[in-house]
Amino acid sequence: MSPRKVERTRQTRRSFLQTAGAAAGAVLASVDIARSAHVAGSDIIKVGLIGCGGRGTGAAAQSVRAGDNMRLYAMADLFRDKLDRSLAILRKQVPEKIDVSEDRCFVGFDAYKHVIECCDLVLLCTPPHFRPEHLKAAVAAGRHCFVEKPIAVDAPGVRSVWETCQKAKEKGLAIVSGLCWRYHYGVRETMRKVLNGDFGEIIAMQTNYVVGYLWAVKRKPGWSDMEWQCRNWLYFQWLSGDHIVEQHIHSLDKMAWAMGDQYPVKAWGLGGRQVRTDPLYGNIYDHHAVVFEFANGIRAFSYCRQISGCYNDVSDHIFCTRGHVDVLKHTATYKGRRIWRYRGPKNNMYQTEHDEMVKSIMEGSPINNGEYMTKSTMMAIMGRMATYTGQLVTWEQAWNSKDELKPPAYEWGPVPIRPVAKPGITKLI
Ligand SMILES: NC(=O)c1ccc[n+]([C@@H]2O[C@H](COP(=O)([O-])OP(=O)(O)OC[C@H]3O[C@@H](n4cnc5c(N)ncnc54)[C@H](O)[C@@H]3O)[C@@H](O)[C@H]2O)c1
Predict the structure, then answer these.
(1) DSSP state at residue 210
(2) In what order do the strands lie in the sheet with 287-293?
(3) How many Å lie between the centroid of ligand 1 and the Cα of residue 149?
(4) DSSP state of 53
(5) What was the pLDDT predicted at 240?
(6) Given its phi and psi angles, is residue 360 left (phi above 0), alpha (psi -120 to 50 degrees) or beta?
(7) Which domains are seen in the chain, by residue range?
(8) 155 lines ligand 1 (CB under 6 A)
(9) H or E element in which residue 203 lies
(10) How far is CA 310 from the centre of its chain?
(11) From CA 378, how far away is CA 256, in angstroms rounded?
């Protein structure tokens, strides 16, 4: 290794430690990180992966590519087969960046605690149900966090994450959200122009996430309810929050972004479970249509569907007085004529998230995306409350909801599931 490289490596490690320490008033966070650094006896930045599925594996590769001396150091999953598969992929993709010994592979519901204990930066990539607890533990231990979307499945989880993000700010810890479109250059520039008023004032918005079926995992003999539900997590309200929360959050976040990170004051909607009714698909809906209304009267009309054999469309539209903005195409048209198109550099938003995260830590001003990642999750849950109950739901009602989606215990046994919601009958809690 060249001397220059060694110097850069040292600086990186020191910056990681200093960032967390400085803003914390040099108390807990710095002590914990310094201790783990000392034990390892090196200048390596230790990255821990919690939730070793498709997204977690991708995030791990991106995280270690974001800095010379970043190494994947520990991994946690509920299941050993998932962890092994992820590790094998990562060993092929970024072999020089993997330093995961057998005694740093953790399995089970408490596995996350061990990863948090021994790493500097953690990637929280499990199903969203577990995010509030994992994030709370990571921030309490003084770790920088990459936090996949959504950040919770219910309002108590949202409120917990809100508090944790405030603590992270006080401690000088990075909280980078997996709402990846916020890191896409073309979408960023499109939103900058919308917010700048370049196309006039917003009149209304429409957002679509209408797609076919996703993967599903059939139950195997010998699996408990808990094992099957955790392996087939997309379809259980308590694990995913329903697809309006798990997937459509990307679209809803863009609506809030276009409004200058203002959130709707009320919502009502229609939804149901019409085609994807097999028990394989748990207890979530297959379609939702929600009208979100903002304080200034602007409405966002939102649609999401997961039914195969139908028209598909993933797009976001902002209708302004002097142009129709197609967010994902990064274009604007007026009276049928194109008036603007993004021509700037392209980027891989998934990589940029980690590059900007590491840079912000090293520069001593860690990114904290806590506010929008928390409120956009709330917006999506509010939409689900509206379609499940059939009621008009206000932001206050949604934020203060006491409805907690939680199994009786985190253990490998029976897990009763709620009946599929019925509008007009299911109550807002
Ligand atoms: N930003 C994006 O574009 C994007 C894309 C895909 C997924 N995601 C999000 O990433 C998260 C993971 O999705 P995925 O597609 O990787 O799912 P996945 O099923 O492939 O991976 C989830 C992994 O977490 C593990 N897990 C479950 N509970 C756990 C626990 N309590 N502790 C430790 N591990 C646990 C599972 O066994 C599995 O290996 C979800 O929140 C999803 O919404 C984001």
Answers:
(1) E
(2) 337-341, 331-334, 323-326, 313-320, 202-211, 299-306, 287-293, 266-272, 393-394
(3) 10
(4) S
(5) 98
(6) alpha
(7) 3-180+354-368 (3.40.50.720), 182-343+375-399 (3.30.360.10)
(8) no
(9) strand 202-211
(10) 27
(11) 11
Q: Is 184 in the pocket of ligand 1 (CB under 6 A)?
A: no
Q: What is the dihedral of CA 176, 141, 150, 107, to 10 degrees?
A: 120
217 close to 231: Cβ distance less than 8 angstroms:
yes
What residues does 318 pair with on adjacent strands?
205, 325
* Residue 40, C-beta contacts closer than 8 angstroms, at least 6 positions apart: 46, 73
CA distance 242 to 221: 26
Given a cut of 70, the residues of the chain with pLDDT beneath it are 1-42
- Mutating to test ligand 1, I would choose from 125, 161, 353 the residue with most ligand atoms within 8 A of its C-beta, which is 125
CA torsion sign, 166 to 54 to 102 to 6?
negative
Q: Which two tokens stand for residue 245?
A: 């929360």
- pLDDT confidence of residue 15: 65
CB 248 within 8 A of CB 209: yes
Q: pTM for this one? A: 0.93
The 10 Å Cβ neighbour count of residue 279 is 9
Instruction: Using DSSP, state whether 200 is helix, strand or coil.
Output: coil
pLDDT given at position 89: 98
**β-bridge partners, 288:** 271, 304
pLDDT on residue 18: 61
Ligand 1 mean position to 54 CA, how many Å?
7
Helix (H) or strand (E) holding 374: helix 370-389
Residue 352 parent element (H or E): helix 349-362
What's the rounded Cα separation, in Å, for the pair 419 and 426? 10
Nearest Cα neighbor of 209 from 312, 293, 286 is 312
- pLDDT value of residue 251: 98
Listed in sequence order, the residues at least 6 apart from 308 whose beta carbon sits closer than 8 Å to its beta carbon are 212, 213
Angstrom CA distances, 284 to 49, 137, 310, 422, stand at: 28, 29, 19, 11
pLDDT value at residue 43: 82
Can you tell me the distance from the alpha carbon of 129 to that of 74, in angstroms, rounded to the nearest whole number?
22
